[in-house]
Amino acid sequence: MENINWFPGHMKKTRDLLRDNLKLVDVVIEILDSRIPISSKNPEIDKIIDGKAKVVVLNKLDLSDPAKTEQWKKYFKNNGSRAIFLDSIKGVGIDALISECRLAASEKMSQLASRGRNERAIRVMIVGIPNVGKSSLINKLSGKKSAKVGNRPGVTRGKQWVKLKGDLEMLDTPGILWPKFEDQSVALNLAFTGAIKDEVLDSETVALRLIEKLSLIEPEKLKTRFALEELGETPLETMDAIGKKRGCIISKSEIDYERVAGIILHEFRSAKIGRITLETPDDLQKVEKD
Protein backbone atom coordinates (compact mmCIF):
# COMPACT_ATOMS: atom_id res chain seq x y z
CA MET A 1 0.00 0.00 0.00
CA GLU A 2 1.37 3.38 -0.95
CA ASN A 3 1.87 5.98 1.76
CA ILE A 4 -1.29 7.71 2.88
CA ASN A 5 -1.43 11.46 3.35
CA TRP A 6 -4.74 12.79 4.58
CA PHE A 7 -5.56 16.42 5.14
CA PRO A 8 -8.62 17.62 3.19
CA GLY A 9 -9.45 21.30 3.38
CA HIS A 10 -12.49 20.80 5.61
CA MET A 11 -10.28 19.14 8.21
CA LYS A 12 -7.97 22.14 8.29
CA LYS A 13 -11.03 24.33 8.84
CA THR A 14 -12.09 22.04 11.67
CA ARG A 15 -8.71 22.37 13.35
CA ASP A 16 -8.97 26.14 13.13
CA LEU A 17 -12.56 25.98 14.46
CA LEU A 18 -11.42 23.90 17.41
CA ARG A 19 -8.63 26.33 18.25
CA ASP A 20 -10.88 29.37 17.90
CA ASN A 21 -13.62 27.98 20.15
CA LEU A 22 -11.37 26.44 22.79
CA LYS A 23 -11.61 29.55 24.97
CA LEU A 24 -15.36 28.96 25.28
CA VAL A 25 -15.05 25.60 27.06
CA ASP A 26 -13.95 24.39 30.49
CA VAL A 27 -13.11 20.76 29.68
CA VAL A 28 -12.02 18.95 26.51
CA ILE A 29 -13.25 15.38 26.00
CA GLU A 30 -10.89 13.48 23.73
CA ILE A 31 -12.59 10.40 22.36
CA LEU A 32 -10.53 7.44 21.14
CA ASP A 33 -11.38 4.04 19.68
CA SER A 34 -10.68 1.47 22.41
CA ARG A 35 -9.52 -1.01 19.75
CA ILE A 36 -6.76 1.36 18.60
CA PRO A 37 -6.01 3.84 21.42
CA ILE A 38 -2.68 4.81 19.85
CA SER A 39 -3.70 5.13 16.21
CA SER A 40 -6.97 6.95 16.97
CA LYS A 41 -5.22 9.67 18.96
CA ASN A 42 -4.66 12.86 17.00
CA PRO A 43 -1.17 14.06 18.01
CA GLU A 44 -2.18 17.67 17.36
CA ILE A 45 -4.93 17.69 20.00
CA ASP A 46 -2.65 18.18 23.00
CA LYS A 47 -0.82 20.97 21.22
CA ILE A 48 -4.06 22.74 20.37
CA ILE A 49 -5.71 22.50 23.80
CA ASP A 50 -2.46 23.58 25.50
CA GLY A 51 -3.05 22.54 29.10
CA LYS A 52 -6.87 22.81 29.12
CA ALA A 53 -8.50 20.28 31.49
CA LYS A 54 -9.04 17.05 29.53
CA VAL A 55 -10.88 13.76 29.96
CA VAL A 56 -9.95 10.83 27.71
CA VAL A 57 -12.79 8.58 26.56
CA LEU A 58 -12.10 5.17 25.05
CA ASN A 59 -15.25 4.30 23.15
CA LYS A 60 -16.54 1.13 21.47
CA LEU A 61 -15.90 -0.93 24.57
CA ASP A 62 -18.29 -3.57 23.21
CA LEU A 63 -15.96 -4.20 20.25
CA SER A 64 -12.62 -4.38 22.05
CA ASP A 65 -10.93 -7.32 23.77
CA PRO A 66 -11.78 -7.27 27.52
CA ALA A 67 -8.33 -8.51 28.60
CA LYS A 68 -6.52 -5.87 26.57
CA THR A 69 -8.96 -3.23 27.79
CA GLU A 70 -7.83 -4.05 31.34
CA GLN A 71 -4.23 -3.45 30.23
CA TRP A 72 -5.21 -0.01 28.94
CA LYS A 73 -7.12 0.82 32.13
CA LYS A 74 -4.01 0.01 34.15
CA TYR A 75 -1.85 2.07 31.80
CA PHE A 76 -3.98 5.21 32.08
CA LYS A 77 -4.33 4.83 35.84
CA ASN A 78 -0.55 4.48 36.27
CA ASN A 79 -0.02 7.60 34.15
CA GLY A 80 -2.51 9.67 36.12
CA SER A 81 -4.77 10.33 33.13
CA ARG A 82 -8.50 10.89 33.44
CA ALA A 83 -9.74 7.99 31.29
CA ILE A 84 -13.25 6.61 30.94
CA PHE A 85 -14.04 3.42 29.02
CA LEU A 86 -17.52 3.35 27.54
CA ASP A 87 -19.98 1.97 25.04
CA SER A 88 -21.80 5.04 23.74
CA ILE A 89 -24.48 2.94 22.03
CA LYS A 90 -25.63 1.17 25.20
CA GLY A 91 -24.65 3.99 27.54
CA VAL A 92 -22.12 2.02 29.59
CA GLY A 93 -19.79 4.49 31.32
CA ILE A 94 -21.87 7.61 30.63
CA ASP A 95 -22.48 8.44 34.30
CA ALA A 96 -18.78 8.03 35.04
CA LEU A 97 -17.94 10.40 32.18
CA ILE A 98 -20.28 13.10 33.48
CA SER A 99 -18.80 12.79 36.97
CA GLU A 100 -15.26 12.97 35.59
CA CYS A 101 -16.08 16.11 33.61
CA ARG A 102 -17.48 17.80 36.69
CA LEU A 103 -14.37 16.84 38.63
CA ALA A 104 -12.09 18.12 35.86
CA ALA A 105 -13.93 21.46 35.82
CA SER A 106 -14.15 21.87 39.61
CA GLU A 107 -11.14 24.17 39.86
CA LYS A 108 -12.44 26.42 37.07
CA MET A 109 -15.90 26.57 38.65
CA SER A 110 -14.39 27.45 42.05
CA GLN A 111 -12.40 30.28 40.45
CA LEU A 112 -15.56 31.69 38.85
CA ALA A 113 -17.44 31.48 42.15
CA SER A 114 -14.63 33.28 43.99
CA ARG A 115 -14.99 36.16 41.54
CA GLY A 116 -18.69 36.42 42.27
CA ARG A 117 -19.74 34.95 38.93
CA ASN A 118 -23.17 33.32 38.75
CA GLU A 119 -23.19 29.53 38.55
CA ARG A 120 -23.41 28.27 34.97
CA ALA A 121 -23.31 25.01 33.07
CA ILE A 122 -19.95 23.30 32.65
CA ARG A 123 -18.93 23.71 29.03
CA VAL A 124 -17.23 20.79 27.34
CA MET A 125 -15.89 20.17 23.86
CA ILE A 126 -15.62 16.73 22.33
CA VAL A 127 -12.78 16.10 19.89
CA GLY A 128 -11.48 13.13 17.98
CA ILE A 129 -10.95 11.61 14.58
CA PRO A 130 -13.92 10.57 12.41
CA ASN A 131 -15.93 7.45 13.19
CA VAL A 132 -15.05 7.05 16.88
CA GLY A 133 -18.65 7.55 17.98
CA LYS A 134 -18.87 11.25 18.83
CA SER A 135 -22.43 11.71 17.62
CA SER A 136 -23.63 8.57 19.40
CA LEU A 137 -22.00 9.80 22.60
CA ILE A 138 -23.72 13.19 22.34
CA ASN A 139 -27.07 11.51 21.77
CA LYS A 140 -26.62 9.34 24.84
CA LEU A 141 -25.46 12.26 27.00
CA SER A 142 -28.36 14.45 25.93
CA GLY A 143 -30.95 11.70 26.14
CA LYS A 144 -32.26 12.41 22.65
CA LYS A 145 -31.26 12.13 19.02
CA SER A 146 -29.72 15.58 18.81
CA ALA A 147 -26.87 14.92 16.40
CA LYS A 148 -26.93 13.35 12.97
CA VAL A 149 -25.42 9.91 13.36
CA GLY A 150 -24.09 7.65 10.64
CA ASN A 151 -21.70 4.75 10.29
CA ARG A 152 -19.62 6.65 7.77
CA PRO A 153 -16.77 9.01 8.69
CA GLY A 154 -17.53 12.69 8.42
CA VAL A 155 -21.31 12.65 9.03
CA THR A 156 -21.17 15.31 11.76
CA ARG A 157 -20.82 18.78 10.29
CA GLY A 158 -20.38 22.31 11.59
CA LYS A 159 -20.74 23.41 15.19
CA GLN A 160 -23.53 22.82 17.68
CA TRP A 161 -24.05 23.37 21.40
CA VAL A 162 -25.95 20.55 23.04
CA LYS A 163 -27.52 20.81 26.51
CA LEU A 164 -26.78 17.73 28.58
CA LYS A 165 -28.15 16.30 31.79
CA GLY A 166 -26.14 17.11 34.88
CA ASP A 167 -25.85 20.79 33.99
CA LEU A 168 -23.37 20.30 31.18
CA GLU A 169 -23.22 21.91 27.76
CA MET A 170 -21.24 20.36 24.95
CA LEU A 171 -19.70 21.96 21.89
CA ASP A 172 -19.38 19.30 19.22
CA THR A 173 -16.81 19.53 16.43
CA PRO A 174 -16.29 17.36 13.34
CA GLY A 175 -13.54 14.78 13.52
CA ILE A 176 -10.06 15.85 12.52
CA LEU A 177 -7.11 13.91 11.21
CA TRP A 178 -3.53 15.07 10.93
CA PRO A 179 -1.60 16.13 7.80
CA LYS A 180 0.66 13.09 7.55
CA PHE A 181 0.80 9.57 8.91
CA GLU A 182 4.39 9.14 10.07
CA ASP A 183 3.74 5.45 10.70
CA GLN A 184 1.87 3.51 8.03
CA SER A 185 0.66 1.02 10.64
CA VAL A 186 -1.40 3.88 12.06
CA ALA A 187 -2.96 4.49 8.64
CA LEU A 188 -3.77 0.79 8.33
CA ASN A 189 -5.38 0.61 11.77
CA LEU A 190 -7.56 3.59 10.87
CA ALA A 191 -8.47 1.88 7.60
CA PHE A 192 -9.28 -1.40 9.36
CA THR A 193 -11.72 0.33 11.75
CA GLY A 194 -13.30 2.57 9.10
CA ALA A 195 -11.92 5.92 10.27
CA ILE A 196 -10.67 6.40 6.70
CA LYS A 197 -13.41 5.93 4.12
CA ASP A 198 -13.22 2.68 2.17
CA GLU A 199 -13.58 4.65 -1.06
CA VAL A 200 -10.25 6.39 -0.40
CA LEU A 201 -8.24 3.17 -0.29
CA ASP A 202 -8.19 -0.17 -2.08
CA SER A 203 -10.47 -2.29 0.14
CA GLU A 204 -9.00 -5.53 -1.16
CA THR A 205 -5.51 -4.50 -0.04
CA VAL A 206 -6.84 -3.27 3.32
CA ALA A 207 -8.61 -6.61 3.89
CA LEU A 208 -5.46 -8.51 2.93
CA ARG A 209 -3.41 -6.50 5.43
CA LEU A 210 -6.08 -7.07 8.09
CA ILE A 211 -5.82 -10.82 7.53
CA GLU A 212 -2.06 -10.48 7.93
CA LYS A 213 -2.54 -8.62 11.23
CA LEU A 214 -5.18 -10.99 12.63
CA SER A 215 -3.11 -14.02 11.64
CA LEU A 216 -0.44 -12.73 14.03
CA ILE A 217 -2.53 -11.55 16.99
CA GLU A 218 -5.83 -13.49 16.79
CA PRO A 219 -5.38 -16.54 14.53
CA GLU A 220 -7.92 -18.70 16.39
CA LYS A 221 -10.69 -16.12 16.13
CA LEU A 222 -9.99 -15.79 12.42
CA LYS A 223 -10.09 -19.55 11.88
CA THR A 224 -13.21 -20.02 13.98
CA ARG A 225 -15.25 -17.26 12.33
CA PHE A 226 -14.55 -18.45 8.80
CA ALA A 227 -14.54 -22.19 9.61
CA LEU A 228 -10.95 -22.70 8.49
CA GLU A 229 -9.01 -25.73 9.70
CA GLU A 230 -5.76 -23.84 9.17
CA LEU A 231 -4.72 -20.43 7.91
CA GLY A 232 -2.95 -20.22 4.58
CA GLU A 233 0.81 -19.88 4.35
CA THR A 234 0.22 -16.34 3.09
CA PRO A 235 -2.57 -13.80 3.75
CA LEU A 236 -3.68 -14.21 0.12
CA GLU A 237 -4.11 -17.97 0.58
CA THR A 238 -6.21 -17.30 3.67
CA MET A 239 -8.29 -14.75 1.74
CA ASP A 240 -8.83 -17.33 -1.02
CA ALA A 241 -9.97 -19.89 1.55
CA ILE A 242 -12.41 -17.41 3.09
CA GLY A 243 -13.74 -16.59 -0.38
CA LYS A 244 -14.41 -20.24 -1.12
CA LYS A 245 -16.05 -20.81 2.27
CA ARG A 246 -18.38 -17.86 1.72
CA GLY A 247 -19.14 -18.70 -1.91
CA CYS A 248 -17.47 -15.61 -3.33
CA ILE A 249 -16.77 -17.19 -6.69
CA ILE A 250 -17.08 -15.34 -10.00
CA SER A 251 -16.56 -18.24 -12.40
CA LYS A 252 -15.00 -21.66 -11.99
CA SER A 253 -12.41 -21.10 -9.24
CA GLU A 254 -11.94 -17.32 -9.63
CA ILE A 255 -12.38 -15.46 -6.36
CA ASP A 256 -14.49 -12.29 -6.11
CA TYR A 257 -11.92 -10.38 -4.04
CA GLU A 258 -13.98 -7.22 -3.76
CA ARG A 259 -16.84 -9.15 -2.18
CA VAL A 260 -14.52 -11.12 0.13
CA ALA A 261 -12.85 -7.89 1.24
CA GLY A 262 -16.22 -6.37 2.09
CA ILE A 263 -17.17 -9.39 4.18
CA ILE A 264 -13.88 -9.45 6.10
CA LEU A 265 -13.89 -5.73 6.88
CA HIS A 266 -17.57 -5.72 7.88
CA GLU A 267 -17.22 -8.73 10.16
CA PHE A 268 -14.14 -7.29 11.83
CA ARG A 269 -15.74 -3.88 12.40
CA SER A 270 -18.93 -5.41 13.80
CA ALA A 271 -16.95 -7.79 16.08
CA LYS A 272 -18.42 -10.86 14.37
CA ILE A 273 -14.86 -12.21 14.12
CA GLY A 274 -14.61 -11.48 17.85
CA ARG A 275 -13.88 -8.62 20.21
CA ILE A 276 -10.43 -7.61 19.01
CA THR A 277 -8.03 -4.89 20.14
CA LEU A 278 -5.22 -4.15 17.71
CA GLU A 279 -2.95 -2.18 20.06
CA THR A 280 -1.66 -2.63 23.61
CA PRO A 281 0.37 -0.37 25.94
CA ASP A 282 3.45 -2.35 24.87
CA ASP A 283 2.94 -0.99 21.37
CA LEU A 284 2.88 2.54 22.78
CA GLN A 285 6.26 1.96 24.40
CA LYS A 286 7.64 0.89 21.02
CA VAL A 287 6.28 4.05 19.42
CA GLU A 288 7.87 6.23 22.12
CA LYS A 289 11.24 4.53 21.60
CA ASP A 290 11.05 5.12 17.86
UniProtKB/TrEMBL annotation:
Q: Which Gene3D superfamilies match?
A: 1.10.1580.10, P-loop containing nucleotide triphosphate hydrolases (3.40.50.300)
BP GO terms, sorted? translation
Q: Which domain of life is it from?
A: Bacteria
Q: Which residues form the CP-type G domain?
A: 14-179
Alphabetically, the GO molecular function entries are:
GTP binding; GTPase activity; RNA binding
**Any one GO CC term of the record:** cytoplasm
Cited InterPro entries: G_CP_dom, GTP-bd, GTP-bd_ortho_bundle_sf, GTP-bd_ribosome_bgen, GTPase_MTG1, P-loop_NTPase
Show the PANTHER family listed in the entry.
MITOCHONDRIAL RIBOSOME-ASSOCIATED GTPASE 1 (PTHR45782:SF4)
User: Which protein are we looking at?
Assistant: Ribosome biogenesis GTPase A
Q: Which organism is it from?
A: Peptoclostridium acidaminophilum DSM 3953
As recorded in Swiss-Prot or TrEMBL, the protein's gene is named: rbgA
